[in-house]
Amino acid sequence: MDFVSARDTVSNYTGSKSSGTATNTVKALFTAYYPANNAMEGGFLDALGNRLDPSKHTCAAPPSVPFGTKVTVQGTGTALDGVTYTVNDRGGMIQIENGVYHFDLLMSSNAECNRWGRRKGTAIIGGSGSSSSSGSSGSSTEKKKKDITTVVVKSVTGTAGTRKEILRDVPSYQLPGAELIIQNKNGQLQQPMIEGDIVWETTRSGAASSLTFTVVKDDALNFHEGNPVSFRFNGANVFYGYVFKKSRSDNRLIKVTAYDQLRYFKNKDTISYTNKTYADVLKMLAADYGLKVGTVTDTKYKIPQRIEEGTLFDMLGNASDLTIINTGKVYVLYDDFGKLCLKPYESLLLPLYIDEDTAQGYSYTSSIDSDVYNRIKLAWDNDETGVREVHVMNNTASQSKWGTLQYYEKLDNALNTADLQTKAKALMKYYNVIHRELTMQKVFGDVRARAGTSVCVGMGLGDINIKNYMCVEKAKHTFSNGLYTMDLYLSGIRGEFSA
User: Fold this and answer.
1) For site-directed labelling of 359, which of 56, 129, 208, 218 has its Cα 20 to 30 A away?
2) Read out DSSP for 278-290?
3) Would you say residue 129 has pLDDT above 80?
4) Does 138 have pLDDT greater than 50?
């Protein structure tokens, strides 16, 4: 108050006047402040007696800078660079020292004030806050960049193409044995002669199922990449997909690789959505790419606003992970003979029993080296207090055996204590188990045993004896001249085995 009087107004200012367009770039020291509610500090009023309003971007400046002057912040390395403040205050410590102008910038809260603190930089004094001559990007007219929260398609060139697939509705012609049919681009259905094995492989997540086979080339056989392929065994639907690769080493044999609809989830894209379930996201992506949908279970949990960029597998994997983390429930995505399905893990139990006598061999591993955790740490940033709040859940029993294996996640949204505990419990249940894997080789084949289903296993494995359902992580079915076997890669849904 020693530097301010009632006569300190713009009309009484006797120094140099700003024309509103001239600018001067100076070295500056910026200090964040928030008004203290006492007379010594001036309370919530500026030097002219007006109530302070943080939304109006005002500041205190040295006495030589007139009230109403525009001051644009530069070079602090913060989000305030380019923001223009209006001088409406003074202060005893706000001076020019060794050519450095001191400015106090009004913040919206004490927390913001404490976070920002004091920063060195430069200031554009005068004008409208813009400075084309100085080469600065700081400007009062420069629009503040917004966070990207939505994706909008502005233009589309051409219409999406669709295949005419008469093969999709063709019934089985040959009940016993293998039946493989290809529909060519002319709509002709061809049943080629097969040389060697037909191999059907499925994976529980992140990959399409594949069918590989070798056909004998003759004058009538004519098919191309993208043509539909169906495969049945003993009248049962096994695989429906599309030719993606052909290769040959002579003029007589063509090796073919076909994939089901999930192959199109390797496409990369960018999307945004708000309050959609895992099932909703699947249906949305299927509609975008013209894919057929079968039984899709309501996954219940609505995922808050997200923007995604990557493969469609990545997007669906994120939706699956968020659903598991928040509900503890696991869902299996697969293609059921040309229709995308999403079903709960527990609904895919098969009445199949596998032991040492039904397989030619097996291999077994156990590990805590990957994706095993016994401490859950969840954090979120409290913007009101400026504090990163952390919540921790320990499992003392497993920590005493394995040491501390920590899972950490920074949450996008604040949760109340009860919700945080529920989420931490779901994560602990999912991750706090030894990861065990069992591979059964050359088991008698059953086309129902695809990845994502579960079979009952009875085995003595040395460190543990098991007799319960195990999830099929991967399955390889080989149809070879009347002999049909399968290799199954098994785990608990999280790798655990129950005695």
Assistant:
1) 208
2) HHHHHHHHHHHTT
3) no
4) no
* Confidence check: pLDDT of 465 > 60: yes
CB atoms within 10 A of CB 26: 15
Residue 358 confidence (pLDDT): 81
Which whole number is the average pLDDT over 232-248? 95
DSSP 193-223: PB-S-EEEEEESSSS--EEEEEEE--SS---
Measured torsion, CA atoms of residues 485, 487, 493, 497, in degrees rounded to the nearest 10: 100
| CA–CA dist 55, 47 (Å, integer) | 18
> How far lies 349's CA from each of 222, 295, 453, in Å?
41, 17, 6
Structure-token pair, residue 437: 């894997």
Decide: 35 and 51 in contact? Cβ < 8 Å.
no
> In sequence order, what are the beta bridge partners of 474?
203, 489
Residue 467, CA atoms < 13 Å, CB-side half-sphere: 2
Q: CA–CA separation, 73 vs 81, rounded Å?
A: 5
Give 419's Cβ-side CA count (13 Å radius).
7
Cα angle, residue 427 at apex, residues 431 and 377 outer, rounded to 5°:
100
Closest by Cα among 294, 249, 300 to 279: 300
Contacts of 36 (CB under 8 A, 6+ apart): 43
User: Tens of pLDDT along 418-436?
Assistant: 778 888 888 898 899 988 8
* pLDDT of the residue at 251: 85
Which pLDDT score is estimated for 9? 56
d(C-alpha 411, C-alpha 391), whole Å = 11
Residue 424 β-bridge partners: none
Alpha helices in 17-126 (DSSP H): 110-116
SS3 content of the chain, % helix, strand, coil (to 5): 15, 40, 45
Instruction: Decide which of 444 and 35 is more confident.
Output: 444
Give CA–CA dist 58/32, Å, rounded.
Answer: 11
CA distance 389 to 420: 12
State which H helix or E strand residue 293 sits in.
Answer: strand 293-296
* Range with the poorest average pLDDT among 103-117, 361-375, 411-425, 431-445: 411-425
pLDDT digit string, tens, across residues 173-194: 666 789 999 999 888 999 999 9
